[in-house]
Design a protein that fits this description.
Length: 120
């Protein structure tokens, strides 16, 4: 993982730094909103943290953050930055992603929402 890009991403998220946003232009941003079934919140949290940790080891992953909603403790938000859409797409061939996909039907209260974007 490129430490400089990770730090610039963090600066962009926290401080809204224009220079940091410029450094992220051209990267592939992914935001996913997931809501756990009642009683499955901890299992979903553990599964998402595992995926985060493994994703951060991928060469194309610049940042991967798992957030928990302050308004709904069953809701989780993923914020990811990838070098490219192709780098993100390669992730879906990894065994840990396939494992998560197999678990999601049991863990989620409803289908997740997926947003893909680029910094402008």
């Amino acid at each position: 993982m490129n430490f400089r890009v990770l730090m610039l991403s963090f600066m962009c998220l926290v401080a809204g730094n224009v220079m940091a946003e410029d450094a992220l232009k051209g990267t592939h941003t992914v935001v996913v909103v997931l809501e756990a079934r009642r009683g499955k919140e901890d299992a979903l949290k553990a599964a998402l943290i595992k995926v985060r940790d493994l994703s951060l080891q991928e060469s194309g992953c610049l940042a991967y953050h798992v957030h928990r909603s302050l308004n709904n403790s069953a809701q989780f938000i993923l914020y990811e930055n990838w070098e490219s859409k192709a780098a993100h797409s390669k992730q879906f061939q990894k065994p840990y992603i396939m494992e998560l996909e197999n678990k999601l039907e049991l863990l989620l209260a409803k289908p997740y929402q997926l947003f893909m974007a680029k910094v402008i």
